[in-house]
Each structure stands twice: as C-alpha cells, then as structure tokens.
Amino acid sequence: MRIDVVTIFPEYLGALDVSLIGKARREGLLEIRVHDLREHAFDRHRTVDDTPYGGGAGMVMKPEPWALALEQIAADSPLALDAEGETGRRPVLLVPTPSGQLFRQQVAQELSAADHLVVACGRYEGIDERVFHWAQEQYEVRLVSLGDYVLNGGEVAALAMVEAIGRLVPGVVGNPESLVEESHSDGLLEYPVYTKPSSWRGHDVPEILLSGDHGKIAAWRHEQQVERTQRRRPDLLERLDVSTVAQED
Ligand SMILES: Nc1c(O)cccc1[N+](=O)[O-]
C-alpha cells in the first residue's frame, strides 16, 4: 500500500518511521511519503491560510495549495496508470476531521484494502470546503473523525488512522492470528491478559488460565469480553448480532 500524507508539520509524522509501521516501510510492505503543503504555496511567505468568508474566529486553509499538492500526488499515483479508467479505481483521500464519519475498526479494515491512500491533515479552522468537492474527480473522498473532541489539527488523528489501517495490510503484523483476538476485531472489547509471575503482590492470575483446559479458557475469555463490553461499552453491544455475544457451543 502507498500512503501519502500532506501536512504543514511534516516532522509530526516522524512517528511513522518507528516500530511496526517503520519496519513495514523498510521492508517495502508500506510506501509512506510525507509532503509539506507549503511547498505548494508560491507567494513570498508560502501562505496556506486566510480569513474565513462570513467572518468568525481563526483562519481557513486556502484551496489552491491543496489542489496543487493533490494533483501532483494523483499524477504520481500507482493508480494513475488506470487514468484511462479501465478499472476506474481512484486513490482514497482520507481527511481526518471532527465533522467526519466515526473512525472504527470496520473503517480501518475497509481502507486497508486501498491501493493508494492520501491523508490530508487540516489545521486552523479547517480546509476550504471546495477542495473536497473538487477532489471527487481524482479521489474517493472520505472525511473521517477519530472522536468527538478537539485537536489542533489532523496530524495526531492521521498517525492513529495510518497505524490502524497500515497494521492490517498483509505481512505488516508478523502473526496475523494476533489481529483476530484484539478489541473491536469481533465487535467486543478484548479479554484481560496476564503473564508471569502467577502470584504478584497478593494478586493471583485467574485459576482457569493455569488449568491447561483450552476449551474452558476460550469460554472464560469470551465471557470476560462480553462482561467488559457490557460494563464499559454497552453501545457496542447494540451493534452486534446475538451470535457474537452468545457463547458458541
Ligand atoms: N477531532 C479532530 C480535530 O479536532 C481536528 C482534526 C481531526 C480530528 N479527528 O479526526 O477527530
């Protein structure tokens, strides 16, 4: 998968050189390029923002630098070879924004199948809305929110989304089995985990986990998932079908 990130703070994306995602880049499983939006602003001060029409506090990101950046990336896309539209596939333009669709594991799963993902990190009060309409021709535009809180820009959300998506690309996570039993992979929160020592400062590992009875351990873990989800995230249960919650025989 090819991922391009456009930002006015390229250094913010340095975390993508570290750990699993960094290793996947070095192994060629992920090709990640970070672009400085200011390189597409050509006035003397490389201006990327201006005052909002209609008044109001703050500044809005100008459309032209974004259009120039996104045009250049689209022209360089591995999907550009399909410009004749044989397959009609377009890169996904992923825009982290508080006004977007909620980013969930299912969205990460869906986007991990994309050949080319372009992440637009807004700052200030946001990006001129016309950019998202203009971009529809060359991109599948997806406005996605990490959560209902205010950040100073899209970079932190971009890091989270790129990690959540990138780790699902085949080969990035060494043992694909570990993707199966994670929180939200089956719609439930994950079960509690323990390691040595079996007794620690008066706290003991649940006996069942020392029994060696894999069937009972699996049943106990599922019960723990359902109990935790009921207690901490009842909203998730409303979205699940009964078979996931009921203990399979
Ligand atoms: N919440 C927020 C924001 O305030 C700014 C940019 C992106 C996000 N988000 O993706 O959730």
Outline of the structure:
31% of the residues lie in helices and 17% in strands.
Describe the structure.
The chain has two domains: 166 residues, Alpha/beta knot; 66 residues, Trp Operon Repressor, Chain A (Orthogonal Bundle). The mean pLDDT is 93. Strands 2-1-6-5-7 form a five-stranded parallel sheet. The protein has a two-stranded antiparallel ribbon with strand order 3-4. The chain is α/β, with parallel strands linked by helices. The chain is elongated and about 70 Å long. Helix content is 31%, strand content 17%. It binds 2-azanyl-3-nitro-phenol. 2-azanyl-3-nitro-phenol binds next to β5. GO terms for molecular function: tRNA (guanine(37)-N1)-methyltransferase activity.
Gross CATH architecture of the largest domain: 3-Layer(aba) Sandwich
The CATH topology name of the largest domain reads Alpha/beta knot
Principal-axis shape equals: elongated
So, the CATH homologous superfamily of the largest domain? Answer: SPOUT methyltransferase, trefoil knot domain
Strand order of the largest sheet: 2-1-6-5-7
* H/E topology pattern: EHEEEHEHEHEHHEEHHH
Strand content: 15-25%
- Number of DSSP helical runs: 9
Each distinct ligand: 2-azanyl-3-nitro-phenol
The CATH class assignment of the largest domain is: Alpha Beta
Would you identify the regions where 5 or more consecutive residues have pLDDT less than 50?
none
Major sheet characteristics: 5 strands, parallel
- How many individual domains? 2
**Number of distinct beta strands:** 9
Q: What's the pLDDT, averaged over the residues?
A: 93
Q: Nearest-angstrom radius of gyration? A: 22 Å
Proportion of helical residues: 25-40%
Pfam families: tRNA_m1G_MT
Family: Belongs to the RNA methyltransferase TrmD family.
Catalytic activity: guanosine(37) in tRNA + S-adenosyl-L-methionine = N(1)-methylguanosine(37) in tRNA + S-adenosyl-L-homocysteine + H(+)
Subunit structure: Homodimer.
